[in-house]
Design a protein that fits this description.
Elements lengths: L16 H27 L8 H13 L3 H20 L1 H20 L10 H21 L7 H12 L3 H19 L2 H23 L4 E7 L3 H12 L4 E6 L6 E9 L4 H11 L4 E7 L12
Antiparallel strand pairs: 1-3, 1-4, 2-3
Keywords: Cell membrane, Membrane, Transmembrane, Transmembrane helix
Subcellular location: Cell membrane
Main location: membrane
Length: about 290
């Protein structure tokens, strides 16, 4: 950026060493608790087996009457050992805490009230709760183990992408749900799995409403000065070449907040009404004038 934003903020205390470790553990514990609550309040009482080891525990409870927490421990332990063997001790240690505490929280919160017996509502709100919990676990650089370990092992052995491996495993669980619980329950499980994935993605990518504007004009210097002085935002000049003419030209890139878009367009219009402007969403922006990550 050519100009630092003038709205200075006090420096953040960097999260590293013991403090970073403490925050990570706290996120894993809180995330596991939220995931366990989402499972017990929505998924389990409505028999929604939305993939993973938790989905298998729903099937085991429906088929054999097995306690879901015990089923998850029974599956997580061998998967954790396989993870250490195939993926290394470092990965195994990151999965150990989540693999243990998630079934523990599921066991401790198993007698809570059931907010709804509507499977559609349960799949949506259960997906939100589980996605929020898992997103926090991932933010804490942890894992709840389960079939994600197996997916990474499959990726390493077969060369399949991680996403494909996860789809294959979750698809197998939901197919089993169709046989054990019925086709309709499998459809609800798909909804829950979709919502969970969307919430995790939102937490990973951020909820920012920041925009990125690319401006192509014959008056780039005047526009850049107007943005720097009137909008009080930094910008970057990118060297580009016209695809048709082959001429070298400058493209301005400016990152602005949602509430600044109207002003930005007005500034550009006032300088060059014929300027070509592209505005896209930025999921997350880190740095001066925006969110800073420790």
């Amino acid at each position: 950026m050519q100009k630092e934003n003038s709205r200075n903020k006090p420096p953040l205390i960097p999260l590293n060493g013991p403090l970073r470790h403490t925050v990570d553990v706290a996120l894993i514990l809180i995330g596991s608790l939220i995931t366990g609550l989402g499972f017990n309040l929505f998924f389990l009482p409505n028999q929604i087996a939305s993939g993973g080891v938790s989905g298998l525990s729903v099937l085991a409870e429906a088929w054999f009457g097995a306690e879901p927490a015990f089923t998850q421990w029974a599956l997580n332990i061998p998967l954790f050992i396989l993870g250490v063997i195939f993926l290394g001790k470092q990965y195994g240690m990151r999965s150990l805490l989540g693999s243990f505490v998630l079934p523990l929280f599921i066991y401790l919160t198993k007698d809570g009230p059931v907010p709804t017996t509507n499977p559609l509502l349960a799949s949506i709100y259960g997906g939100i709760a589980v996605g929020l919990g898992l997103g926090l676990v991932f933010r804490g650089r942890g894992s709840t183990g389960g079939l994600t370990i197996l997916a990474q092992i499959i990726q390493k052995i077969t060369g399949f992408s991680f996403s494909l491996s996860v789809v294959l495993l979750d698809g197998t669980v939901i197919t089993l749900a169709a046989f054990v619980l019925g086709m309709e329950q499998a459809m609800y499980a798909l909804i829950g799995l979709f919502v969970t994935g969307r919430v995790i993605n939102a937490l990973e990518m951020g909820f920012s409403v920041t925009k990125v504007a690319y401006i192509i004009s014959d008056h780039t210097e005047a526009i850049s000065q107007a943005i720097l002085n009137d909008l009080d935002r930094g910008l970057t000049k990118l060297n580009a070449q016209g695809g048709y003419t082959g001429d070298n030209r400058v493209v301005l890139m400016a990152v602005v907040g949602q509430n600044e878009i109207t002003r930005l367009k007005a500034i550009v219009r006032s300088v060059d009404p014929g300027a070509f402007v592209i505005i896209t969403e930025a999921h997350e922006v880190l740095g001066e004038g925006f969110k800073r990550e420790a």
